[in-house]
Amino acid sequence: MNGLRALPFAAIAALALGLAATLAALQGDPPFGAVEIGPWTTWPRVGDSEIDPYARAVLAASGALPLGSGEGLAFIAKTDDSGAALDARCDYRISGGAPSARFWTLAAYDVDGRLRPNAANRYGLSSATLLRDSGGGFTVDASRDAQPGNWLPLGDKSRFILVMRAYQQTSSAVTGALDGLVLPGITREGCS
Amino acid sequence: MSPRLSAADRVIGLIPWVVAALFGAVAIHLLAVLSLPALAPGASFRKLALPLAPGEKALLPRAAAVSGGSAFADPFAALALCRFDLAQGPLRVRASADGDHPASVSVRLADGTIIYSANDKQTPNGKFNVLVVTQAQADALDSAQDNTGQTGASGGGDDELRLVSPSARGFVLFRTLSLRAGDYEAAAAARGGFACSVEKPAP
């Protein structure tokens, strides 16, 4: 009978531990199925019926509408090539390869997924409008301050996230065959 | 019995409760993870689709820094959606790309699972003709087809894609893309090619 006195404590502990574990698991990104390409990360399975329950819960909590696997793939970068967190007090050069896709876009977001307010009201760049060099390559300058060429405004808040979306990509998201996929590097240029 | 032994006995007596608490924590954690997609107030189905009547179309606002919209929304994407509740009948989805703007259709369950997605390059002439049904509705359509000896008992035409949904509730998302910032209004207008309607179940 004395042992039953532990029952309420065990129930409260189970509830607290269970909810704490849930909160921890749902903070940030889906915990499973990530594919990393340089500083970029994607979760190919969130776009099809094989999505795991944790990813489903993370997306529900965030309210995001992920791309279906037949639509494209989204790649998220929270750090530069060196692994340092992206910070709008710094300038970044985004250059190199581009995803093999019919069309791609690049945008900067707050950590909560909102586009970055900026005086230019420019919220992203697309592959259709980029200025390119003679070899077809491109360089995007992500900065708070206006830049010549392909400028991606970063707004004033410090931490930010880059999202590159490859629409109608040729690499197969369903099979996870992303080995040949090329994405641009993110180089920190300087900080104010 | 010495006080030392008594304390040890008490600790040993707590072990089953600690184990029970851990098992309970795991169960609560799994329950919370599995139920969150249906319960989260900000989940896309609850937030965007549930206020709509089945078959009703809604145009989502352009992603902007202030106006909100979905988290991590693409500023180049113009979105429209309609809700389905297959308990009220199959949902017919027709959509077409305008040729200038990439377009896609995805069918999503209420818990966010995407059961179908395709772009305009994967469909005949960039046109989508999808009939979302339950398994029972699909069987009824097949039966009606057998009885009449005619194909296309659903009346959807030869290009119809019949999609059996494992869940009765969800929504269909239509996405068109502006190739450049100044092109958004034209891409948004292409959402006029997206239409949903609730159909009568086969008798």
Compile the SSE list and pairings.
The complex is a heterodimer of chains A (192) and B (203).
Chain A: H1 7-26, E1 35-37, E2 40-42, H2 53-62, E3 72-77, E4 90-96, E5 101-109, E6 124-126, E7 139-143, E8 150-153, E9 161-169, E10 184-191
Chain B: H1 3-39, H2 44-49, E1 57-59, E2 77-85, E3 91-96, E4 103-109, E5 114-119, E6 127-133, H3 135-148, E7 161-164, E8 169-177, H4 184-189, E9 195-198
Number of strands of chain B: 9
Number of helices of chain A: 2
- The structural domain count of chain B equals 2
Shape of chain B: flat
Strands of the widest sheet of chain A, in order across it, are 1-2-3-9-5-6
- The average pLDDT score of chain B comes to 89
Helix content of chain B: 25-40%
Amount of beta strand of chain B: 25-35%
Oligomer: heterodimer
Spatial extent as radius of gyration of chain A: 20 Å
How much helicity do the residues of chain A have? Answer: 10-25%
Annotation keywords:
heterodimer, A: 192 residues, alpha+beta, Jelly Rolls, four-stranded mixed beta sheet, 2 helices, globular, B: 203 residues, Immunoglobulin-like, 2 domains, five-stranded antiparallel beta sheet, 31% helix, 27% strand
Question: What do you see in this structure?
Answer:
The complex is a heterodimer of chains A (192) and B (203). Chain A is built from two helices and ten strands. The model of chain A has no long low-confidence stretch (mean pLDDT 89). Chain A is of the alpha+beta class. The longest helix of chain A is centred in the N-terminal third of the chain and has 20 residues, at 7-26. Chain A has one domain (33-191): Jelly Rolls (Sandwich), CATH 2.60.120. Chain B has 203 residues and is of the alpha+beta class. Chain B folds into two domains: 1-39; 44-198, Immunoglobulin-like (Sandwich), CATH 2.60.40. Chain B has helices spanning 3-39, 44-49, 135-148, 184-189; strands at residues 57-59, 77-85, 91-96, 103-109, 114-119, 127-133, 161-164, 169-177, 195-198. Chain B is flat and about 80 Å long. The model of chain B has no long low-confidence stretch (mean pLDDT 89). At the A-B interface, helix 1, helix 2, strand 5 and strand 9 of A face helix 1, strand 4, strand 5 and strand 8 of B.
